[in-house]
Each structure stands twice: as C-alpha cells, then as structure tokens.
Amino acid sequence: MRTSGNKPLSGAFVAAFLVLGAGTAAQAADGTQAGSGGAEVILAAVGVTAGPALPADPGHGPLPRHEVALAVPEDLPSPGALPSYGPLGLLCAASLTAEPAPGATVDLTVQTPCLAGEPVTLRHGPLEATYLASSSGVVRARFPAFDPMAEFTAVLSDGQTLAAAAAVPGASGYERMVTMWPTGGSGLSVHAYEFGAGPGGAGHVWHGAPRQPAVAEAGRGGYLLELGTPGVSEGRMAEVYSFPAVGSRREGAVRLALSAEVTPETCGRPIEAVTLQIGDGLPGAPVAVSLPVPDCGTGQATDLVLKNLARDLRIGSTD
Amino acid sequence: MRRICLGAAVLAALATDPGPAAAQDVRLTARGGGLVLDGNLLGFDGEFYRIDTVYGVLTVDATGVQCSGPACPDLEAFVAQVTISGATAMGDVLMPALVEAFAAQRGLAASRAIRDPLGFTYSLAEPDGRPLARIDFRLTTTEEGFADLVAGEADLAMAAREVTPAEVALGREAGIGTLSAPSQSRVVAFDAFVAAVAPGNALDAISIENLTRALSGEIADWGPLGGTADAPIRLHAMEQSLGPQQGIETVLLAPGGQTLSPAARRHPDAASVADAVAGDPYALGVTLASALGSARTLALAGGCGVALRADEVAVRSEDYPLVAPMFLYAPARRLPAVARDFLSFLSTPAAERVIRRAGFTDLGARRQPLAAQGERLANAILTAGSETRLADLQAMIRALAGAERLSPTFRFRPGAAGLDAPSRGHAVLLSEAIEAGVHDGRELIFAGFSDGEGSAEANLRIARARAETAMSAVRALADGADFDRVRFTAVAFGEALPMACDDTEWGRRINRRVEVWIR
After folding, report:
1. Spatial separation of the C-alpha atoms in residues B510 and B501, rounded to whole Å
2. Do A41 and B121 touch (CB under 8 A)?
3. Quick one: which of B110, B204, B253, B492 is 20 to 30 A from B334 by CA?
4. Cβ contacts (< 8 Å) between A198 and chain B: which residues?
5. Contact with chain B for residue A294, Cβ under 8 A
6. Is the CB of A280 less than 8 angstroms away from the CB of B100?
7. How many CB atoms sit inside 10 A of residue B10's CB?
8. Domain-by-domain residue ranges, chain B?
C-alpha cells in the first residue's frame, strides 16, 4: 500500500543473502575450514581473521592477491627484505586512526603503503563499508559514531585487522537509519523528510542532498553519510542518516523512506540489503531485506519506494 | 533441538508390528509401547502431530511417540510457518517492528523477503543459521484478515476494529472457535483518530459537533470554529476504500446521516493526510495518531467545557473518545510454539517500547496521582449542582486520598452489563499482574462512575453494580493470586466526576466507567 509501482511485483521468494547458511555455504564451496566458521555472519562486530572471510560472498575462494605474492620471490634476489617497504619506500606497517569530527562522526584514516589500490573494509559495530586504498595506500572515510566510546576496525586485503577508538560524547543522542548492500548490486537509499518536507524540498535529506554533519551539531537537522567505494569487488556500500534527537531546535517528525533505483543495470535483479534502525535507547538489530525489482523492458523506469521499512522519528524540541 | 530417543523397547515394537496400511501414511507408536496409531498426517506444528485415524482426528504430543511411515516430518528440520493477515494499519509498521524486536530478544537473525507492496515474509533463524520460523504477512483489511482466518489461510488476523457478530458466526461454523472470546483475541496497541492541523494554526480545541460539521462541509471557514473568519477550511481525508477512513466516517459522520464533503482532498494513507495538513495553516484533516508526523492535534471539547486531548494517558485509559484499539485474533487451535512465544512477548516491557516507538500507545499501565486530576476535579466542582452535593465530592476525595489511578479503565457495551472487548483485555492484564505479585500489599479500588442521565440515586446504584462487575471479573481471572496480599474494594461515585460532557452519546459513554485506583 505504501510502496509505489502500479501493479504488485510478482517474484519468487529471494533467499536472504546474509545470515542464512552463509557459514556452511562457504565451507562447502572451498572445502576447507580456513574461513573460521562463525566469521561469515557478517554482522559480527570485529575479529574477522582471514582474507577469505570477507563478507557477503559465500562462494569465493582465496583472493588472487595471495597467488601474486607467492610468485614474487623467484624474480628477486632478497625476498626476505621486501615486505618491509612499500613502492614509495615507506615502511609497510599499516595504521588506523580515528579522530572525532562534527555531528557525532569520526574521521578514519587508514595508511597501508604496501596495499595500495587494495580493498579495505571499515567496520563500526554492525556497520561496514569497503573502500579502495589510494595509489599511496591511504583510505579516508567519515563514519558515524554509534557509541560514546566508538570502536572501529579496518580489515586489510592481507587479512590484517587494525583497531582504533574515539571518544564521541554526543553519539547516543542521535537517531540513525542504516542501509547496507553488496557493491555491484543495487542498494537501498535512505530518504529523510524532516518536519513535513516534501520530495526535493529543503528538508529532504538523501544522497542527492546529503548535508554536512555540522548541521546536526547546530540542532538544525540531520545529515546523510554515504560509505564505501562503488565498484570494489566483494565489498559493501552503506548509507547512514543521522538526526540529533537530543538538541533538536525543532519539534515534529522525520519520515523515513527507502528507495531503490531501477536502471538498465539493476532491472530484474533482486535487491539484497540490510537495514538497521538505531536510537531511542534501543540498539536495534540488523534485518536482511530482499525484494524483487521489475524485469527489464517492462517500461517501469520508476524507482521503488518503500515507506514501511523504517519507522518515523518523533522529535521533541529542546528549545 | 527436539530429542528423539530410540529406546530399545520402541525399536522392538516397530520390528514386530505389521507395516502401515497403504492408505495410512504415518504410524505413531508410544515410546513406552502399548499404543499404536495409524492414520494420515494432517499437520505437525513442531510439537504435536495432527493425525486422521479411525478414531477421528487426534492431536498427539510428539515427545511421547515415535513416528514411522513416508509422511513423517523431519523433527530436526522443522520450520514453523505462521501467516498473519489483515489490517494494513497494523501490518505496515507495528507488527513488523514487533517481529523484529522479538527476534532480536531471542537472539534470532531476522530477514525480510518482500514479495510485493502488500506481502512479505520474515525468516527467523538461530544464530548458527538453522531456520526456525517463517512468518508470512498479508496486508489487506480487517475484513480480509477475518476471512483468511475463517478460511484457514491465516494463523492470526490483524484487526483495526472488534470482530462483528456475523464474523463470529462464520468462525464458529468454520470450527475456529468463538473469535469474540477473550482467549482468542487481544489488544496489541491503541491508535486514535485525531483532528489534525498545521503547527501554525492557532486553534487548540474543537467540539466533536463542529468537527462533524466541518467534515461534512456545513462549516466551510475557520470563523465559526474560533479561527480566522472567512479563511476557508481546506479538508484532507484518506481514500474511501481505506479502513481508517471508514472508521472515521462511521464514528463521526454516520450517526448524523452525513457524508464527507466532496471538496476534501483524498490521500493514499493516514501519513499523507497528516503531511498535507502540516504544511497548510488553513488545512484540517482527521488522521491516525500513529501517523501524525509534524501535524498538531486538536483537543476534542464538549459543550460543558471539558476538553480531551489524545495524549498517552487519555488514549491508554480510553478517556479520549476516538481511540482505535488494534487487535490480534487467533483461531481456537494450537499455534506453533514460536507464534505462542511471540504472543507472550507482546505484553513484555520490551514490546511496549517498540509499540511506543512505532507511534502507538502500549498497554502498559500508567499511574496518575490524585494531584494530576486537577482539571477533572475542577470540572467536578463546576458541574456539581442540585444532584451532586459538596458532601459527595468530599466523600470521593476521602475515598481516593493517597491513591493513584491506573490507566486501565473498564467500560461497558452499550446497553449491556458486560465489559467491552478492550476492557476484557484490561481484566486479563490486571489479573496477571496481581498473580505475579505486582500489587502485593496494596489495595485495589474499583471506582464506578456513571453518566448524568437520570437520577443521581439510580446512577449511583448502576455505578456500584459496574464496579462490582469489573472487580469480580478481575478476581475470577486472578485465580492463582493470594488474596491475603491484595485487598479489593468496590466503591461508587455515580455522576460525581465526569470525564466528558453528558450532552452527547460519546460523552456519556466515556463517563460510564470503572476506574482502578491503587493505594
């Protein structure tokens, strides 16, 4: 009823891609126990131990990276010394730093000189997104902080896990709406309509009008963070809308909707995503969501809009 | 999860028995030996077999028997299937939020497969990935929900109104029991119909009479309502086909034989009505409190000056006149364990928080001290006259001194002595709390009130009878309670403390009540 589209979408039940059977599938596919069974439940907070355990892909084998690395020693006189320095002569030691930023966000920096151009997965509790390290091996990302003592991890393509934390005293005063999806698939975008705003209005916050976190700092509204680098293979993308429920200068409601773009690239392919709503003192639990997308060539170019996957936020003014 | 013990005795029994007849697809053998049942398996809910035998349809506890034959279900791989069908007002946000919270509390992973805008399925799985249950939602209307229940196509019906006598009769014919029985229905949450205006509209209250006249188009500008004269009222309403809109018209317009003004702009849901109203200071609409968004509600005023606002306490106690309880109805058969667990979860504090977050009012009891009743008391003094004397008011204050009012309030079916449906739910919840010892060492005062029609003396008598009815209903349900620890008292104050004005039927209905006070 509250979803757009002229006719009901028919389609088979699409198996949830996340939690159901992911562990067993991975083991069956590569025939080994290497992936440390439980780690495939991708929403586990931290502690993923090995490259093959990268999330959301039940079927892949060892990453090609390892094979390349094995080939190197034959060509070089002193292989033992190599791992210590990167292409720019920097030490290979990788690092993750977390700096508090406006609006209960944290600026994360990963330095991994020896893994330039490689994927890096950043995690914060149930939230995760995959980035591509720059040519100098750097990843910069702004993440929301869900807890006053916010812990972050970075998982590198060689299996290393880095950890960092930041104190964000205001973090628990925010309402959050999170969506995550595998790169390559079509995602679910978050739309927040603040205080009665209509589509395209000043209070409509989405990836087309994400706003800056400083807006929230001033109690003037929420902001959206887009996380992840599009196109990383076997990675994850995320969107997080944050609203300062404590300290808002306005009273009323923020209506939330999720949308999926139907394009020639995404038509006919089911969407598989994760939604998570955090706030009001409740931790919230991630829910895997799957939905069919109209077939290509049906002429339904309109986006899918889902109004009932997120509850509205009720905001009391502190003025 | 389920233990299957293959005891030696059972194996021996199986070995010596002849095989099941061709038409019989299962054989249940008692673990201790002795009983053997051959028949066709009709169903398995994870705990019980339903089997059609020469003795008729039998329900057999799976822990007590060994199943053999081609139709035997795999006990380990059993996935409970529950279908929930009915009102979109409940199935849209409220019920999914409750299912997700239930899963989170049990440590189960929840995934939601969307079929189409009005259908989706939750799969709940153990942390190790083993599927436990599939909960199928069909979002239609209350009427369709009851039809699915009667047709055996749903295990729970979501209803935005009480079941009708005709639907009860259909249910009985279909063998799903008596849907109106307290054991088969429960109120999950309360919503309310509210008159909504923009935050910038200066009006604070509207009488139901004026609201009705505005909705019908008889009043077309804000002047007669106490607003800007000659400013047109821009009306917003839901589509006619939607249950809540029909509910609004049944309550507000149908009694006077009126219909909604054709000038009203129609919207696809309650939230759209609220959003349209919120953006226009000259707009007026009746929508659902759960979908209010950034709009503001008007208090409903009676001719005697008492105004009722749809706040949490007034909705919970149903003092507010346009409360819409959200019901779940179940057939009179055993539901899978996961469904029963979910139903028990609905009355926990965790569920109450989810209900509040979804914009509804939960069933958790609120307490209000006598001091918070200032407006009511002031009103009682104002309306006291020839029939209610100062001495009556003083007696009432003395009787309730030091006590707090609990939000559950008993009301009665029109023209009948029996409790209405939500009140039966209050009686169940209150009796459970008493059995759990929540009110140990306290006195529960059942205070009967009446409307002001007729003589004060007769009203006092009716109020006392109602107080005793409510008290004995709770007492009968709390059969596990220790009545040495909780004291029950029934008192009556007749028409002394009106909640609403007696000049309308809805006002009188609100005044005919039994309040529960605790001291």
Report:
1. 9
2. no
3. B110
4. 275, 279
5. no
6. no
7. 18
8. 8-68, 81-181+332-357, 193-315, 365-518
Q: Are the C-beta atoms of B337 and B434 separated by less than 8 Å? A: no
ipTM of the complex: 0.77
Q: What is the pLDDT of residues B319-364, one digit of tens each?
A: 888 889 999 999 988 888 899 999 999 988 889 999 998 889 998 8
Asked if B132 contacts B79 with a C-beta cutoff of 8 angstroms, the reply is yes
| Pick from A105, A134, A108, A100: nearest CA to A119 | A134
Q: At B346, which amino acid appears?
A: L
Choose, out of A3, A13, A303, the residue to mutate when testing the contact with B (most B CBs < 10 Å): A13
What is the pairing mode between strands B185-197 and B323-329? Answer: antiparallel
For residue B178, give the nearest of B197, B165, B192 by alpha carbon: B165
Chain-chain contact of B118 with A312 (C-beta, under 8 angstroms): no
Contact A211, A290 (CB under 8 A): no
What is the architecture, at CATH level 2, of domain B8-68?
Roll (2.30)
Residue A298 pLDDT level (bands cut at 50, 70, 90): low
Give the span between the Cα atoms of A152 and B305, in whole angstroms.
Answer: 59
Query: Which residue in A280, A287, A308 is closest to B111 by CB distance?
Result: A287
CATH class of B193-315: alpha beta
Which of the following CATH numbers is that of domain B81-181+332-357: 3.40.190.10, 1.20.1050.10, 1.10.3720.10, 1.10.10.10? Answer: 3.40.190.10
Q: Which residues of B34-50 are buried (b: 16+ CB within 10 A; e: fewer)?
A: eebbbbebeebbbbbbb
Nearest to A19 among B88, B109, B358 (CB): B109
- Return the SS3 of B200: coil
Q: Tens of pLDDT along A123-143? A: 999 999 999 999 999 999 999
CA distance B392 to chain A (A): 41
Q: What is the 3-state secondary structure (H, E, C) of chain A?
A: CCECCCCCCCCCCCCCCCCCCHHHHHHHHHCCCCCCHHHHCCCCCCCCCCHHHCCCCCCCCCCHHHHHHHHHHHHCCCHHHHHHECCCCCECCCEEEEEEECCCEEEEEEECHHHCCCEEEEEECCEEEEEECCCCCEEEEEEECCCCEEEEEEEECCCCEEEEEEECCCHHHEEEEEEEEECCCCCCEEEEEECCCCCCCCCEEECCECCCHHHHHCCCCCEEEEECCCCCCCCEEEEEEEEECCCCCCCEEEEEEEEECCCCCCCCCCEEEEEEEEECCECCCCEEEEECCCCCCCCCCCCEEECCCCCCEEECCCC
Contact B114, A306 (CB under 8 A): yes
Would you say the CATH fold of B193-315 matches that of B81-181+332-357? yes
State whether A1 and B353 contact (CB < 8 Å).
no
Q: Choose among A21, A291, A292: nearest Cβ to B129.
A: A21
A311 to chain B, any CB pair closer than 8 A? The answer is yes
Residue B295 structure tokens: 């709009």
Residue pLDDT, tens place only, A273-284: 999 999 866 667
Rg of chain B over CA atoms, in angstroms? 27
Tell me whether A5 touches chain B (CB under 8 Å).
Answer: yes
Strands A174-182 and A271-278: antiparallel
CA neighbor of B312 nearest in space, from B277, B354, B274, B364: B364
The whole-angstrom separation of Cα A154 and Cα A130 is 9
What CATH superfamily classification does B365-518 receive? OmpA-like domain (3.30.1330.60)
Q: Where are the beta strands (DSSP E) in B198-322?
A: 205-207, 234-238, 265-267, 283-288, 296-297, 299-301, 307-308
Question: Reduced to 3 states, what is the DSSP secondary structure of residue B484?
Answer: coil
Q: Answer whether A267 touches B (CB < 8 Å).
A: no
Closest approach of B281 to chain A, Cα-based (Å): 13
Chain A residues 202-261 within an 8 A CB cutoff of chain B = 251-253, 255
